[in-house]
Design brief:
Strands 3, 11, 12, 13, 14, 15, 17, 26 and 27 form a 9-stranded antiparallel beta sheet that branches. Strands 18, 19, 20, 21, 22, 23, 24 and 25 form an 8-stranded antiparallel beta sheet that branches. The protein contains 6 helices and 27 strands. It folds into 2 domains: about 30-190, Super Roll (Bactericidal permeability-increasing protein, domain 1); about 260-455, Bactericidal permeability-increasing protein, domain 2 (Super Roll), CATH 3.15.20. The longest helix is centred in the middle third of the chain and has 34 residues, at about 155-190. The two termini are about 30 Å apart. It has helices at about 30-50, 155-190, 260-275, 295-300, 305-310, 400-425; strands at about 15, 20, 25-30, 55-60, 65, 70-85, 90-100, 110-125, 130-140, 145, 195-200, 200-205, 210-215, 215-230, 230, 235, 255-260, 280-285, 315-320, 325-330, 335-340, 340-345, 355-370, 375-395, 425-430, 435-445, 450-455.
Length: about 450
Amino acid sequence: MAGACSLGLLQVLLLAVARASLPGTVVRLNKAALDYVSDIGKAPLQRALQVTISDFLDPRGEVLQSTRVQILDVHLLLLHLKFIVDFGVRLSAAANFTVKVFRVPEPMELVLPVALQADVHVTRDSIGTLVLSIPTCSSTFSPASTLDGSNSTSQELLALVQEHIKADLSGKLCLRVSGLVQDLNVHLGTLIGLSPVGPESQIRYSITSEPTITSNYMSVDVRAVLFLLGKPILLPVSDAHSFVLPWPSGDEGAMATVGLSQHLFDCALQMLQKAGSLNLDITGQLNSKNNPLNTSTLGQLVPEVAHQFPEPMPVVLKVRLGATPVITLHTNNSTLKLQPFVEVLAASPNSALQFLFSLDVLVNLNLQLFVSKAKLRGTTSILGGVQLSVATSNVGSIDMDQVHAVISTVFQKPLLDHLNALLRMGIALPSVLNLHYVHSKVSVCEGYVVISSGFTYQH
């Protein structure tokens, strides 16, 4: 959870929809992300450049003879990507093409160096995903050279062959680069699909505006919508400003920096509360020496319980969260406040549950956040114990100083186990198909969370 967040408060992202707001996220791709794409993109680009060359009309004798020309190998020497301010990304590549010309009686092999440059425009489409296009692309050919062992070739013939190859490849190479970009568009479209959060809940991301592109990064504002039973979770509008992630923020050397507003966490907790996922029943067993949840133990502290239940019976704690949990994000510290309502019931001889008393509970928890497999997950521990007060009683006066130790002891572990199981399920972060977050570091700042992460792409 460690991480320096020295740049002050971020304003909360609140996008108004029918007097309600949607949680905000900022995704920033840094230079390291371009380096990674360059690295994993070399093999597919090298394969894409293996194009077919039309036959060469060899001017031997009095009649032009059609001679087959074939690319034997493409060796990609360089693939480099850099940001173009307010536009997108510039792709620069250099490759050596080994070409064979099937002349009779002896074929000719040559190496042709080619440099490629394409400007990739990055924009947002109407459905909220990134779209890439290539408005400009060019190829530059250096002089070809014959391979060692080839028969002596006149410079005139070599120039003719090279001119033929250049004319044939100029358009084809850019078409192949454009084809790779179109394949990326299909992949980028997977950002906006629904991702499950729980059995009846999902999250959907979409890009809300044109990307901001500087020489150091590309940043996009992302709307996160949480759904429960197909209905969005919307919170009242309390501000009209956008969530802005300062530069620099997080680890500048990371591939990606993801900023998550507190509003996203508020919506996630409200979704869990509305779904009833935070509710649980804690049941005592008569034959368990480690669980004092039975009428015999309570009867020693509350006389009326002993009077109503002369024979030991199991006791059940029904824990219900009527109030939405409250998360607080301070620099290097995140806490979660729960205010459960607990009904204490005992099993009667006819197996029906009989109400004994109810409790208002206040528990503060330390929240630790981490990233695993493109999901933000969490784990909690109790801060300062559990506060209990009697709400109603069907067993007369209750001395909470005596009852507190019993109830809090049996209450804490089941609550933590239940809550941590939910938090470990996690919420999917903005991502595309087959792309995973790796080596992620989570930093808590004042009112928001920053994730600095690398990526790995798995086919």
